[in-house]
What does this fold into?
Amino acid sequence: MFTGIISAVGHIVAVHPLGASVSHGKRLRVTCPPTYLDDVILGDSIALNGACMTVTTLEPLQQQFTIDISAESLDKTAALDQLGAINLEKALRAHDRLGGHIVSGHVDGIGRVTHFAQVGESWQLQVLAPKALAKFLAYKGSITINGVSLTVNSIADSEIGCEMTINLIPHTIQNTALGTLQCGSQVNLEIDLIARYVERMLSTSNTVT
It folds into this structure.
């Protein structure tokens, strides 16, 4: 489990295929800030842009680690096989503060940035979410975008999806990789866990006796 509070910005510096066919995944090599890996061991979970992955090798002196990502995970996520900055979050410990919201590290869909511009001291981000996720998005509700816990400021439904507007304060821009987004960028989305269970309960309330 995670909280959506990014603990570091890393960089994917190498991508290696794990086989020759499309059914094979890839191995990613990620660099981290100094001391980030000091409390990490093999097999630990680290979320990369919101997708929970397992540490397969560690190089603490070089501040690098690798993860293996399957073809299925690559198909269901955005830009995890591309070089560049990436949001990192270590798995939640039982005594940690829940600073964002409950995040599972499982990507529910891929969104597309439709607008990203500075407004005053902050930045306005608009993302078009898949239509299937529209019922889980609400005004002042929680959404995870590339692993970052954020609050939805407005929503607008359409035939092609649900466009949400989010305000990013300078701290978020400075301490995550969201500042590298551009119009057209694809992003990983995870809906609020509570909304998922509410939808399930409502959908079965009239069928269960």
